[in-house]
Amino acid sequence: MARADSTIMRTKFKGDLVYPGHPRYDDLRTVFNQMIDQRPAIIARCATPSDVAATVRFARDSGMPLSVYGGGHGVTGTAVCDGIVADLRPMKDVVIDQNARTARAGAGLTWGEFDAVTQLHGLAVTGGRVSTTGVAGLILGSGSGWLERKFGYTADNLLSVEMVTADGEIVTASQHENADLFWGTRGGGGNFGAVTAFDLRLHPVGPTVLGGMLLYPADLGPAVLTRFRDFFAQAPDEVGGAVALITAPPAPFVPDSLQGRPAIGMVLTYAGAVEDGESALRPLRDFGPPAADLIAPMPYTQLQQMINPANPSGLRNYWSAGFLRELSDDVIDALCGQHLAAPSPFSQILVIPGGGAIARVPDDRMAFGQRQAPFNVHVLSMWTDQAEDGGNIAWARQLSASLGPFLTGRVYLNYIADQGEDRVRSAYGPQAYARLQELKDRYDPQNLFRSNQNIRPSADPAGAAPPRPRRG
Ligand SMILES: Cc1cc2nc3c(=O)[nH]c(=O)nc-3n(C[C@H](O)[C@H](O)[C@H](O)COP(=O)(O)OP(=O)(O)OC[C@H]3O[C@@H](n4cnc5c(N)ncnc54)[C@H](O)[C@@H]3O)c2cc1C
Q: Which of 185, 187, 205, 242 is nearest to 115 (CA)?
């Protein structure tokens, strides 16, 4: 890409343009997943919606590949490409309407940055479980978090978006304006444009909430998962959580005998008064006993960071996932067996309960459906050395294959690596996919926004196949 071409863009673009050789180039092209090593021709540091529009128009007119960078946590690495990156990270404004309990969030915020502001008002919305994750990619996938059984997915709380479409126009999409686009934006990822701001409904939460983890040795895995399953069949909406099949870290809160060994963490949160949480979580805390009981009142912002240490950036990542039809004894046996076979101590299997508010929204309300599954299994293969790619990727694939008969066939796309077009189609199911493809035909027929879990336009123009991010 000749630098001269980008002078055309300069006339409209007011942010910074970063090229190879710039002191911040390597830092800015880095994403969460260390496997990704893309070298963009230009990183356009967008400060305003007009900057984003200029970048989109420039990509369209020059024919350069385009990607949109929110928080860089997509494990597919599609935030970066070898063309032009619309880097939205400078767009970090948060505007709170305390009376209306709403927030307007800039598309470059992380969840930690967003939560810090909403908590000043004692408010929150379901957000990512790791505070460094971008708000943008998470919401566009639908947004799963600790509060979801009480308040629904993040997308269930989305009131409107401001976005730049493939023709470079800045539009609003909501229930009342461009409602079709709004339907697709809630679960359809970044397929229809670059979102510059999200308007979200907020709820009173905290500032102190009850949460933490109960830790058990791996040989109690089947009993813990069975207890967890039975508890969530009746649990109040306020209780959120996950079972995490992990390797116990060498941390002071872990008994010496368990450090570095396979372990089961029951992560629990309560979206309500601490005293009510104490009694709601009692049946689980009484079980075991756990090797460590780390459940305590804490600031909501701390709860939102409690699994950060287990999910550092800079590791190599291959993820898979699937919604379970039921958490049967056979599934529990498969999960516990594969847990012990994990080749890396960084790898995890999360079993996340459904139900509550997320199950009360009709499947066709928005692009993301799959509301009735009782549990979502998320397999996070994470390791350090490139030489170990094969074994770690194979582990995640084998685990997913062994769960195959127990899965609904749908998947939450934010939780998986690039697994091909068929997987994207099956994530939505035929009806929603057909509707998404109609939208793609209308809003992005040339597939300009293709660096993502891609919904192809039906004409699928030559040369517009989704790029496979370069791996390093
Ligand atoms: C450590 C970790 C923890 C996570 N925890 C959760 C969790 O608790 N719940 C959950 O639901 N997900 C979780 N995820 C998955 C997360 O939702 C996705 O990775 C999501 O894509 C991250 O958003 P981002 O903006 O950081 O990603 P990016 O990598 O910047 O973007 C991913 C893709 O989203 C699209 N995109 C991003 N921003 C925009 C925009 N403004 N406009 C249009 N398209 C855009 C682009 O197609 C881009 O390729 C987690 C991921 C990680 C790495």
A: 205
For the CA of 453, the closest atom of ligand 1 is 47
Q: How far apart are CA 38 and CA 82, in angstroms?
A: 6
Q: Is the CB of 189 under 6 A from ligand 1?
A: yes
- Kindly give the number of the ligand 1 atom that is closest to the alpha carbon of 141: 17
Domain endpoint, select from 69, 87, 105? 87
Q: Is residue 457 in a domain?
A: no
Q: What is the pLDDT of residue 11?
A: 74
Per the structure, how many domains does the chain have? 3
Q: How far apart are CA 284 and CA 298, in angstroms?
A: 19
pLDDT band at 466 (very low <50, low <70, confident <90, very high): low
For ligand 1, whether the C-beta of 73 sits within 6 Å is yes
CA–centroid distance, 136 to ligand 1, in Å, is: 6
Task: Kindly write down the DSSP assignment for every residue of 336-391, as one continuous string.
Answer: HHHHHT-S-TT-EEEEEE--GGGGGS-TTSSS------SEEEEEEEEES-GGGHHH
At 386, is the pLDDT very low, low, confident or very high (cuts 50, 70, 90)? Answer: very high
Q: Which two tokens stand for residue 81?
A: 């490409």
- Asked which of 182, 204, 226 is the last residue of a domain, the reply is 204
Residues 242 and 334 in one domain: yes
Q: What is the pTM of this model?
A: 0.96
